[in-house]
Write a structure and sequence with these properties.
Strand order of the largest sheet: 3-2-1-4-5
CATH class of the largest domain: Alpha Beta
Bound molecules: fe (ii) ion
Strand content: 15-25%
Number of domains: 2
Order of helices and strands: EEEHEHEHEEEHHEEHHEHEHH
Shape: globular
CATH superfamily of the largest domain: ATPase, nucleotide binding domain
Oligomer: single chain
């Protein structure tokens, strides 16, 4: 059985193909705003323009034709409405044209499942770190249904870094630039907020921006990054001790940050817990994870969607 997945929750339009044992292809296009944050309408226009060529590349790399796809799937939420509609529209068209079932996938669920599959873990604690979300999650035997043990009380950690990059007026206002500057900075103390297994980042952002005239951009980036990651690590360690899980997966866009991975890995080693992080390709938003999870969803009851609705605010514990 072959499943094609379309991802379009935010700046990435991705198309992937999976046969259940392997992700056969994983192609994407990316909307890159320079100084401004992501403008949903512009991102959606970008996705609509390139979805056809991304689809063609994904199909050709997988070595299959569209008529050989058994199931079509798409990111149904959470995400930006305008962007979600492009992926939903494209997959509805394909499923109707080829007369094949269509399944919806929760974007966060896809990040968790693709990591668990690639890392061959059974029942991990998930530390899900992305632009819009930062959550500590456990599943029933590692899968559905999921519970959120802790989460950000305001903005996602990726959003914190993107916002900081904009406040510091970087040429390319993106969290990855914050990580580059942080490598050359010196730490100074900033507000640190952990409440049980929850954490918060907006006070940290406000306090850091206030230091703009007094401290170097390198020092601000280093201090914000160290503080935010320490918050995530402290809450994750508490969740590990409480849940007694013996494996930990970090996933989502910010899991591409080597510093966060090193901190979590060290904390896992101290607690005799197995640590895992998938390749960057699968932590960035991608269609491969949607295809993989779409196939899992379909195999559960072999039923496609009767009615297609996107859900911008679909939480992992509502899946
Ligand atoms: Fe994501």
């Amino acid at each position: 059985m072959i499943c094609l997945g379309i991802e379009s929750t935010a700046h990435t339009i991705g198309v992937g193909v999976s046969n259940g044992k392997k992700v056969l292809s994983n192609d994407k296009g990316m909307y890159k705003p320079v100084k401004e944050g992501i403008v949903p309408r512009k991102a959606a226009e970008h996705h609509a323009q390139v979805v056809g060529e991304v689809l063609e590349r994904a199909i050709s790399k997988a070595g299959v034709s569209l008529s050989e796809i058994d199931v079509f799937s798409f990111s149904q939420g959470p995400g930006l409405g305008a962007c979600l509609k492009i992926g939903a529209g494209a997959s509805v068209y394909l499923s109707q044209k080829f007369g094949k079932p269509l399944v919806g996938v929760n974007h966060c669920h896809a990040h968790l499942e693709i990591s668990r599959f690639l890392l061959k873990m059974k029942d991990p604690l998930y530390v899900y770190v992305s632009g819009g979300n930062t959550q500590i999650i456990v599943g029933k035997k590692g899968g559905l249904p999921f519970s959120v043990l802790g989460e950000t009380l305001d903005i996602g950690v990726g959003n914190l870094f993107d916002s900081l990059a904009r406040e510091l007026e970087f040429e390319y206002a993106h969290g990855s630039e914050v990580a580059k500057l942080a490598a050359r900075g010196k730490y100074f103390e900033l507000p640190y907020t952990v409440k049980g297994m929850n954490f918060a980042f907006s006070g940290l952002l406000t306090a850091a921006v206030r230091e703009k005239e007094k401290k170097s951009a390198e020092d601000i980036c280093k201090s914000v990054m160290d503080t935010a990651f320490a918050e995530v690590c402290e809450a994750s360690e508490r969740a590990l001790l409480m849940s007694k899980k013996k494996e930990l997966i970090v996933c989502g866009g910010v899991a591409q940050n080597a510093q966060l991975c090193a901190h979590l890995k060290e904390m896992c080693e101290e607690n005799s817990v197995k640590f895992g992080v998938a390749l960057n390709e699968f932590n960035a938003d991608n269609g491969g994870m949607i295809a993989h999870t779409g196939m899992m969803n379909y195999l559960k009851d072999k039923k496609g969607l009767k009615e297609v609705r996107i859900n911008q605010y679909w939480r992992i514990d509502e899946v």
